[in-house]
Structure formats: structure tokens, C-alpha cells
Amino acid sequence: MKIKNIFQYINFKIIMIFIIIIFLIFLFKIYWVSNNIIYPNIKISEIEVGGLTKDQARIKLKQLIQHNKKEKSLIFCYQGEKWKVPYKNFKHQYDIEKTIDRVYYLGKNGNFLNRIRNYFYFKNREINVPLETIIDSTEIEKIIKQLAQEINIQEEDAKIQLKDGKINILPEKKGRRLEEKKLEKMIEEHLQFFNQEWIQLPVKETFPKITQQDLNSINGKIASFSTYFNSQKKQRVENLRVASRKIDGKILLPGEILSVNKSIGPITKENGYKDAPVIVNGKLQTDIGGGVCQVSTTLYNAAVRANLQIVERQHHSMPVSYVPLGQDAAIAGNWKDLKIKNNLDESVYIEMYLKGNQLIANLYSNQDFKQEIDLETELVSTISPEVIYKKDFSKNISYKKVEQEGKKGYRVHVYKIWYKNGKVKKRQLLHKDYYPPVDRIMIIGQKKEGIEEY
Description:
Layout: H1 2-34, E1 42-44, E2 47-48, H2 54-71, E3 73-78, E4 81-86, E5 93-94, H3 96-104, H4 112-123, E6 127-129, E7 133-134, H5 137-151, E8 159-163, E9 166-170, E10 175-178, H6 180-192, E11 198-200, E12 203-206, H7 212-215, E13 220-228, H8 234-247, E14 251-252, E15 257-259, H9 260-264, E16 275-280, E17 283-288, H10 292-305, E18 309-312, E19 339-341, E20 348-355, E21 358-365, E22 372-383, E23 387-396, E24 400-404, E25 409-420, E26 423-435, E27 440-447
Parallel strand pairs: 1-6, 3-11, 23-27
Antiparallel strand pairs: 1-2, 3-4, 5-7, 8-9, 10-12, 13-21, 14-20, 15-19, 16-17, 18-19, 20-21, 22-25, 24-27, 25-26
């Protein structure tokens, strides 16, 4: 009985050793296979490469990439329209080696048992790794710009047309714009997963700033002002025409501020401006855009009479001929500007044009805001210029020459006056201006006559 039990025990041990050997061989085979192939259920850009060696995966990818670049296209869609762009046009490249190395070593870190466990882990799960793609951003941008030209529609503000004194409002138009950055990312994704061919273009609806509703309350003229100019000064007249056209048609929504500098600038020859006289430090000299201050001055006077808020205004360094003292508004570079705020509850439309030798500014809004307003200048003092003598020792003592004519200076107070039925209702000090005098400069000879020098 004991001998029988001993034999049974020995047989059991032999069987167990055999099973262990078979299991170890099985594990070794899995280990060996897992170290020579890509783990199962792994894809590269939706292409099955699990169970393949690196060489097999490389061949499969190259064949599919060559086919796709030759035969396939990205098809962009929007509202029933389609634009087909072949893959090869994107001029991108794929880093096959880098991608294969990446998927090949997935799960192969760690010891023997970890690798065996990872093998079974991947066998029961699907992993999709994007193909390493070298993007040619320049080519993608070119294609996107071409699509944008097809898609983009500029939104249009509601407009006002004046004809025979009648106000006609043209409704606004919505626009649309291709979202270029979003599309660029979508293209890059599709180039990585190149079996996805269709792209719905991301398009954003755009809305105008000014709507018909903003203009419906404009029913008439609330203020007007005009100044005169010399029509023989062609260059200056052209500057008036160019600048006034840039102001004409402007619409100020409630609370909005108009900058004349921004509206008519930049003042360059490329924008149509000519050389004409300008005031610089109390002197006249020729420069580009001479005369545009008459546009700002005319608009300023119309705005004051419409009771709009003057946010910024500066006078010239010397009086101008086209308005009384203190009623001018100079603009210059970035340091002098006229800024007007629409402080009314309704929109304001600006009309500005040349007629004969007149520059005219008309402001339109709801006629409930119309008031009878005028400006009045009070001359506070007149300042006589000083006479400056400059000695010239190269000229005879009898020599005298006026190098610069003197000009008087002025201090003025300007009042804004409200009328009702022809009578003064309210009087308000608007501002105080000072126009400095310009000194008279005389050159006096100092050399005595008849004296010989040795």
C-alpha cells in the first residue's frame, strides 16, 4: 500500500513538472513573439498593424500612404458646395519609422511577467496611434486662404441714402467668415488619420455693427454749418474733398466717439492728399494735407450746434480766415485731434460735401433733439507783437530788412448760446483761447560806412 502511494506521488510530480515545462514553453513563446511583433489590436491612423513585425508594418504603411497621396483627396463641404483638394497638394510628409518604433515598444517595458501581462492587456483592447506627420504650414495656409476667398462674405452696416431731402434707410446684411485656425487644426488631424476624407468647413456668421433698427429714428436734420474756401487753390481744395469724403456717411451710435484724425488719416499722398499751406508754430509752410483743419473746424461747429459732446478740441496757433476767433478746431499728427461724442439717445448721421466754394456739414438724427444753438466770440484782449532786432555786421549801418512780419495775439472767450423763438434762453462759457502774437523781426546793419580797414 505504501509502495502504491509512493508511485502515485511520483507520477503526480512528473505530471506537474511536465505541465510547468509546457506552460513555461508557452510563456516563452508568447514572450519571444511579443518581442518580435507589434502587440495585437494596435492601429496606426486606423490601419491595423497589430501582430505584424516592424518590416511588415513598414511595407503596409508605405503602400497605403502612396495610394492615398495619389488617389485620395480632402473634400471640404459647406451648404451643399464642395471643394476637392488632393492629398498631395498639402505637401506633408509622414515619419513612418518614428511611428512604428513608437507602437512597437508599446507595453514592452519592464520584466518578463510585465510583458506577458501587457500582451494579454493589448489583446483585449484597441489602441489607435496617430501617424507622425510633418506638416507644411505654408501650403495649408495657402489652401485655407483660397477657401476663405470662396466662403467669406463681408457683413454690411445699414446705410442712409439722402435724395431730394428724403431719408432712405438701406437694411444691414449679415456676413460669414471661415474660422481659419480651427480649420487648420482639422486639416492636420485629417492628414494624420488620412482615411477620413470629408471636412465640414467651420464657418462663423458675422453681424454688422449698425442695424436698420439703429437708424429708424433718424428723421431729419438737427444741425448744419458751412465755411468758405478759395476755389483757385486747387491743391488745398482737393485735400478738403478727400477729407470730407472720409467723414461723409459716418454714423455715430449713442455713446460712440468720432475721432477726426482716425477718420481722415493717415494723411499721405497714397491716400490722395496734396501739398498745401499748413500752420506750424504760428507760421505758414507747405506740407501734405494742408487745409484739412477746415474740415475738422466745419464739423466741430455743426456738432456744437447739434449739442453733441466735444471730447477733445484744440485751436490753431494763429487765427484762421474761415471762422471767427475761438471757433476753430485744429488737427495735427497724434497730438491734436477733434473728438465728438454722440451723447444723444439716438444715432447721428453725418453728411459732408463741397458745393461751389463752400464746405458743408449736416447732421441728422431724431428731430426731437433739434435746438437753436449758436456760438459767440468775446474778444478779451489784443496783444501787440514785440519787435526783435538782429544785428548783421556784414551790412552797412543804413541796412534794414524785415525778416518776419509781426502778428497780433488774442485772448478770447467763446460762448455757446441757446435760443428759443429768437430770444436767448441760455448762455454758457464754452472755452477760453489764446492766440500768441508773432514777433516782428528786423535785421539791422552794423558796419559803418566810409571806414577803411587795414
